[in-house]
Design goal:
heterotetramer; A: 340 residues; Rossmann fold; 8-stranded mixed beta sheet; 3-stranded antiparallel beta sheet; B: Pyruvate-ferredoxin Oxidoreductase, domain 3; 3 domains; 7-stranded mixed beta sheet; 6-stranded mixed beta sheet; 37% helix; 22% strand; globular; binds thiamine diphosphate; binds iron/sulfur cluster; binds magnesium ion
Chain lengths: 340, 618, 618, 340
């Protein structure tokens, strides 16, 4: 429930508190979701967008409870379908800032099709995929991102499904903005939210998120002090792919479609480019950690393509420019006759 | 009554008839639908009442000459009020043996056959499963008035000097058949000539070829001695006004356009193609100038979801499909019920179960739309009675959706969707205004605070300052709409949702009895069987039988007076193209011992079938 | 009857009781489910009859101390035959104020409260919405037998010398509470000690800590003067034999394993997790040694589709979900009906509509499974009555599926799924053999040639030489199963499918009347309300009331004698956890004026509610 | 209906005719589907697999009628779900040769999710995607592969949806075998069918197929004499990416993640490799024609990964090896007690 005083935003001094709803947050203590919520509540007031223009749409899952905690418009829909609902919202009013909150099960298992179709259409929605490699809400089954052999409630002797890699899939669906962050990296997450907020077309952000209850530590390698330094590579457009602690910097070469770890100052180090039209570079980049490298955090790909809702609205506007619809004219179109 | 006619040729009889049913039947590629359409138009413009029934195969183009490939178009036209495409046809135009075979059972004894003998060769006969040529069978010939016409060769002849490829020439043969029928039923050629001009304008050789074929057919009738008489069906005496011929799917599209225009909001159409619903999407996608957004989604689930998202955002979200696609929408429809958002779900029913008979009609999804969702999930259901009525049904569904903040189901069917009838054009001004008021006032706003009269919650759309709120599919707290798992609140909300829908009974017209208000038999129907039932009832009432009719537009809730009406008759007959679904609903609701009369053949009722059944009960 | 007890401590009264209901209630993290489980086991081993009702929140871990986070476990145990977890509880173990608040309404007046006062600080009281501490309220104290126990601090004390982190020590406090209850109800500690050993064997410090906490609780009861009496509930006199305690979901899993083993075919389990159905998947995935394949699909549609594909290939394909997931399966279920393949669809119902109350029980999907598919799409529906009965229901559903070559729906619900009861273990040998015969003989094989008795078509699986054939969702020709669009064939097939399912009535037991065969009131129920209805009926019959009971396992078709049975009573009461769904079915089928009694609170009926209602009718 | 004489296949002289059912083929005259059917009926008898081991599973669409015309086991299921049905079939009996027949609407629109999940799991099914860039059976709406701006029944003034590219998507879903052919190239198609038949794991073959009624000529550039020579590039593992008529051979360089057309003998010409583990190379290859190059025909990617059904069956077998399930033991497991 919102407060009854209208806030018109627009640099009108919105604060973090303005984005906190009156509902008690009900995630498990220590869940990575808290950090994501907090960061969102911090970033939104800085965007100079009136609060009433924000819509959060979600499916079902722990992550999907997110909209209840944001004092914006929110729609907690059904499992897997959030991108489709969000498409209806965005197309109905392209002026809104529409965010989709989804989990790895919600977005990639039951919802995989809507996800890829919203991305290929380039619907201007901002999708945050909370990837904890498990089904949290239903208490611990494996998900499409769980590793082969995962022992979970539904796979007590190990799963036999190869996982999906969300960013690779997104690139296969030609998503125009593809990025990754972690639930522990507050500043980086904030930067990603801001970039998404400003991207036209679909943006997909994978957040490596810790489910402390059912899959604790899934991402520790990339989030914990003492490990993340070696295992994380921050991406900067136009900058070389380098990572590692100051005293042991390494570089990544992606020459000839292979992942190679090289010295940080090697001439073979690949320079990052976000505007990878053909997508092959971003594809291999999305797999660096699978080939023994670090996990890339940041924007993997960002290309410009007119968003779906714009094309849709333009088409209607063009048709209307040729003459707004008139019911009588419509009914009287075609062959008519007078009967006496 | 007969007068004599004939200009250049033999003196011929002009016989006046009241009602004529013609069936054009041929291969899918033979253009029978187009031919039927044109004839329909001519009959309409001549002021006849009429009813049509297109019937096409499931395959795009089944192998030429096979039974599976037959495409038919039946038109019934009359100088009196009629309601159906006719139980049996007076004239059968059969472009090949397969067409003859599939349609002969519907030809009246003594009826006219125009057979394109050019196609009655051994091969085609075999494909149709004929061992010998029926046209040469003496018994057959004595049963019908058989005319063997060389339609193909005469068409080719007529176009001979045009140097067309022969297959192009052959594609004009339907116009020859049409021309012949125009002569036979005294219709002018002019409107069709104009139509050809308009349609093929960019390809002058097509214009010429088709026009020549049309004329050739006409003159063939006029000049040869094969036909000794032709006929006239005079204007019918239906209400004066401006008319057009309209199919159910087009009327449905127009209805939604009109409704949203009257509401002053945009129409968002989320759909995934499926026979026989796709044409509504096609039609709407041509009218974006009304602010209509058509979204061909990746599947039915996305279609309904996007529609509900659009409704949340202040458009009228509508989704349209047929049975199997409706099944996929169930979960999101349930969310619509829980979030109490306006939305319309149109189900153009077809034969089932499963993929079933995709191009055939049926009305067997009533219980699906009533109950095909988890838990208690009530919503209003309305059904269209005739093609033109689809327009008004769309408006009524939209009205209920917005006024009561609820998803509403419309039931149409393949027969209404593709069939057509002359339709008295309403004026925009005659359509009631239905202005929408979105909530804008933050003071006192609660997402689930209800209007005391309608029990509707406010429509508060994103972008409205101060109304930020969250909704979703988990049980909601009364008034605030917050997530709530408390036992008493749940029971309260379940009963409230139920009461809201039940309460709509106060806002809909009472069931209208056609005929005496009490008596021996009441025939109660719904949906596309209206025409056939009405025709049967009229015939029986004309004979003085104690039979009355109720046709339901509102299937949930039922009209408030329905129980009383039912109580006034000794027997209640419920004819349905299913195994008795409305019948079940009447039984559990009113404990009335309905008599079900069912047909599940992918085809509408015949008037005669109904008359026979009703007579049994009288 | 009372005897004196007490070893080292004060002399205490040992009071014999017939039936006791205890509720353990605390935060989700407090281990109440485990505590309840252990107590249940102890009661079971002691030979009591019992019934349990776990009730947990929708959130994984709602904020500590809040009402939303309360997790409860109720157990009713008795020296006589009981059927429900008890309308009200005798003892409430409340680990915090929120637990007290949510459960106090269910405590009998004068009932015992064991409150963990360590958690009754200002903060926790506020979280539960208490303005002051009820334990200090005089009126409150006079209404109940309140025991303020420092469970947390005493547990910590008991573990003091172990140098555990305090949060680990605190996690043992449920064992303290359990130990106290063991003392209070005269249960031996040994089995739980052993269980702790087995469960935590790998972490010796856990074993020690939990064991000590358990003992501390027990000794606290024995030694302090707070409790002046303890109780004994003697063995119940239910049938002799070997028992185990079983929940509905485990029983369901076992039933399918047993059924397919008896059939000699593999079980293919296609499922997508959903509360409260997931546990069946979890259980089955532990028993691959039975040749069980568990497939966690990408969604419910894939789950049912893969199951049907597996059935086509000779496995028994089963899919399991809850209401919203069942909605998604509708289209594929229709394909199962059309292709006449064996398959079982288990629906563990939960509160709705939409996402509803995911962790609460309801029985409101009956009409959904009956009618939630396009067109006429009949299939058998069976429902389980008790947790243990889920086993037999699974076997019955499997039997029907394979014998009649049809999809079959099983209805269970959240209450049966998670609840448990002592279950008389059947022997494998007692389960009827159900050998499957796949068609292998090519001679005379036609895919839709039916068995004259069952009307089932042959099961002819890929890999069988000479039986190559094609099936699908388009209407099929009688006998050959080829695609067929003919009107008469369609009607024939629709009626045949209907008749096949209706014919199953011959193969199921008649409805059994419990009580007099005729009389004033018949109470007719289905599903998980069995326990509550039975308890109510027994109580009333004991008082000589003219009331009888029928509980339906088969909901489609109904038992053949049902109409006759209904006819023998003046009033028919249908209690359901929905708005009257079976009631509707009885009304349309038999035109009987049923009286619906409905509760939609996500909770089972209380026996008292039913008694009151029935008494109204007597 | 099959003939009543059993054919055990296995080199037992199976012929094309053995694979023709008695059902009349009902596609439009001139439809590209005929050629695909004919080729399948020619290739299968050469595989030395008994006829009864073949199962054809399809969804709904013109293409999906295919199983009716094959005298094998066939299952014409529901729209979009064929890969899921096929998964059940294959896992139930891994010994079967399971083929999925699907259209661009069936596979990529309503069925996109099942498609990607069968591919990521590497279920051993052979998927043939008849891509005619249109919905045939429902009479001519645009499909997810239709070009932006397509005018169809449902988009009379042009579509506003960007298309999906099936092979790019398949690579995003990490499909282990990805190939393309056309309905006009009989020999090439046959070679592809054979390769699929022998691949373990999921194989996806896109067939550029002409819908003569609703989208005639969609692929003429790649299938018609006089055009295809310039526009088609045949892929051979280990061979350079070259194409074009004898007298005007060109090469493709994919260096540095860009598509460049170069001279056929340029050292920059990239050498094709099907074993592209990381998938970035195959990704860019799948987009060569979008970047102005020819359309690649042949196997884009083929890597080995144990198939899903094998892992599934092995897991069950392992469990059984430790002791076959016994009902009595199962029922008696856990805490039991005797009541007297
Ligand atoms: C149709 C349907 N199927 C299944 C479910 C049950 N369900 C709810 S959330 C969920 C998965 C949650 O996993 P994820 O999306 O990864 O979110 P998380 O809880 O991990 O944040 C499932 C299977 C449902 N609510 N609806
Ligand atoms: C649930 C459902 N939705 C829609 C349809 C209608 N439908 C049948 S086939 C088809 C698309 C066919 O296109 P494609 O897969 O490209 O096959 P093609 O006909 O072009 O070979 C559609 C929309 C259906 N049968 N079932
Ligand atoms: S279950 Fe996992 S994802 Fe869900 S709230 Fe708890 S920690 Fe977070
Ligand atoms: S509609 Fe197109 S795809 Fe379908 S059969 Fe005809 S030509 Fe082939
Ligand atoms: Mg997750
Ligand atoms: Mg297609």
């Amino acid at each position: 429930m919102s407060t009854t005083t209208a806030k018109n935003g627009g640099g009108l001094g919105l604060t973090r508190k303005d984005f906190q709803s009156d509902q008690v947050v009900r995630w498990c203590p220590g869940c990575g979701d808290y950090a994501i919520l907090a960061q969102m509540q911090k970033v939104l007031p800085t965007l100079e967008i009136p609060r009433e223009k924000f819509v959060f749409v979600s499916g079902i899952g722990c992550a999907a409870r997110f909209p209840y905690y944001m004092d914006t418009f929110g729609f907690h829909t059904i499992h897997g379908r959030a991108p489709a609902f969000a498409t209806g919202v965005k197309v109905s009013n392209p002026d809104l800032s529409v965010w989709v909150i989804s989990g790895d099960g919600d977005a990639l298992s039951i919802g995989g099709n809507h996800l890829i179709h919203s991305m290929r259409r380039n619907v201007g929605v901002k999708i945050i995929l909370f990837n904890n490699r498990v089904y949290g809400l239903t208490k611990g089954q494996y998900s499409p991102t769980s590793l082969l052999g995962s022992r979970t409630k539904s796979t007590p002797i190990g799963s036999v499904d190869y996982p999906l890699h969300p960013l690779t899939l997104a690139l296969g669906a030609e998503c125009s903005f593809v990025a990754r962050t972690t639930d522990r990296d507050q500043k980086h997450m904030a930067a990603m939210f801001e970039e998404m907020a400003n991207h036209e077309g679909t943006s997909l952000l994978e957040v490596l998120q810790n489910c402390i209850v059912f899959n604790d530590g899934a991402w520790h390698k990339f989030t914990e002090k003492g490990m993340k330094e070696q295992n994380v590579m921050y991406l900067e457009d136009g900058q070389p792919l380098v990572y590692g602690p100051e005293d042991a910097r390494k570089g990544i070469s992606l020459d000839d479609y292979k992942v190679r770890i090289v010295e940080a100052d090697s001439p073979d180090v690949t320079v990052h480019r976000v505007d990878d039209e053909a997508g092959g570079y971003a594809h291999i980049l999305s797999r660096v950690e699978l080939e023994g490298g670090p996990v890339p955090l940041g924007v993997l790909r960002k290309v410009e393509r007119p968003p779906f809702e714009g094309l849709m609205v333009d088409q209607v506007a063009e048709a209307q420019a040729k003459g707004e619809g008139d019911i009588d004219a419509l009914l009287n179109s075609g062959d008519t006759w007078e009967h006496h | 009554m007969a007068e004599s006619s004939g200009k250049n040729g033999a003196e011929k009889q002009l016989v006046e008839l009241e009602t004529v049913a013609i069936r054009f039947a041929g291969d899918s590629g033979d253009g029978m639908q187009l031919t039927g359409d044109r004839f329909t138009n001519a009959a309409a413009v001549a002021g006849n009442d009429l009813s049509t029934f297109p019937d096409f195969p499931a395959e795009i183009r089944a192998p030429v000459g096979t039974l599976a490939g037959v495409s038919g178009f039946q038109i019934n036209f009359s100088s009196r009020d009629i309601h159906t495409p006719g139980d049996a046809v007076d004239v059968l135009v059969a472009m090949n043996p397969a067409a003859l075979k599939t349609s002969i059972g519907d030809l009246k004894s003594g009826g006219i056959i125009i057979a394109n003998v050019d196609n009655f060769g051994q091969k085609n006969l075999a494909k149709a499963g004929y061992e010998s040529n029926p046209l040469e069978d003496e018994e057959f010939k004595s049963n019908y008035d058989v005319h063997e016409v060389k339609i193909t060769s005469m068409t080719r002849q007529a176009l001979e000097d045009m140097e067309l490829q022969s297959n192009l020439a052959d594609r004009c043969k339907n116009f020859f058949a049409l021309g012949l029928m125009y002569w036979m039923y005294s219709r002018p050629l002019e409107p069709t000539r104009e139509w050809i001009e308009e349609k093929f304008g960019k390809r002058p050789e097509f214009v010429q070829a088709n026009t020549r074929a049309l004329e050739a057919g006409y003159f063939f009738g006029e000049n040869t001695e094969v036909f000794t008489s032709n006929y006239i069906v005079r204007e019918a005496t239906y209400p004066a006004g401006k008319y057009r011929n309209i199919s159910g799917n087009v009327a449905l599209a127009y209805g939604f356009i009109a409704a949203t225009k009257k509401m002053g909001i945009n129409l968002f159409w989320g759909a995934y193609p499926i026979t026989p619903a796709s044409d509504v999407l096609h039609e709407l996608s041509r009218h974006k100038n009304f602010g209509v957004q058509t979204f061909q989604a990746e599947d039915e689930i996305a279609a309904v979801s996007a529609a509900l998202g659009a409704s949340f955002t202040g458009s009228l979200g509508v989704t349209c499909s047929s049975g199997p696609g409706i099944a996929l929408k169930a979960e999101a429809m349930g969310l619509g019920v829980m979030t109490e958002l306006p939305m319309v779900i149109a189900n153009i029913q077809r034969g089932g179960p499963s993929t079933g008979l995709p191009t055939k009609t049926e009305q067997a999804d009533l219980l699906q739309v009533m109950f095909g969702r988890n838990s208690e999930s009530p919503l209003p259901v309305v059904a269209a009675a005739t093609p033109g009525d689809c327009f008004w049904t769309a408006i009524e569904a939209s009205r209920l959706a917005v006024k009561y903040m609820t998803p509403v189901v419309i039931l149409s069917d393949g027969y209404l969707a593709n069939g057509s009838e002359p339709w008295l054009l309403p004026k925009a001004a005659d359509i009631p205004e239905m202005p929408v008021t979105f909530r804008t006032e933050p003071e006192g706003f609660l997402p689930y605070l209800r209007d005391p009269e309608t029990m509707a919650r406010p429509w508060a759309i994103p972008g409205t300052p101060g109304l930020e709120h969250r909704i979703g599919g988990i049980e909601k707290e009364d008034r605030t709409g917050n997530v709530n798992y408390e036992p008493e609140n749940h029971e309260f909300m379940v009963r409230t949702r139920d009461a809201k829908i039940a309460g709509i009974a106060k806002d809909i017209p009472p069931a209208k009895v056609i005929g005496e208000a009490s008596g021996k038999v009441l025939v109660i129907g719904w949906g596309g069987t209206f025409g056939a039932i009405t025709a049967a009832i009229e015939a029986l009432q004309a004979r003085g039988a104690s039979v009355s009719q109720v046709h339901l537009r509102h299937l949930n809730p039922f009209p408030a007076n329905l129980e009383e009406v039912l109580g006034n008759f000794e027997k209640i007959l419920v004819p349905e193209l299913n195994l008795g679904q409305l019948s079940k609903m009447l039984r559990y609701q009113y404990l009335v011992d309905t008599i079900s009369f069912n047909k599940i053949q992918g085809k509408p009722f015949k008037v005669g079938e109904l008359i026979t059944k009703i007579e049994e009960l009288l």
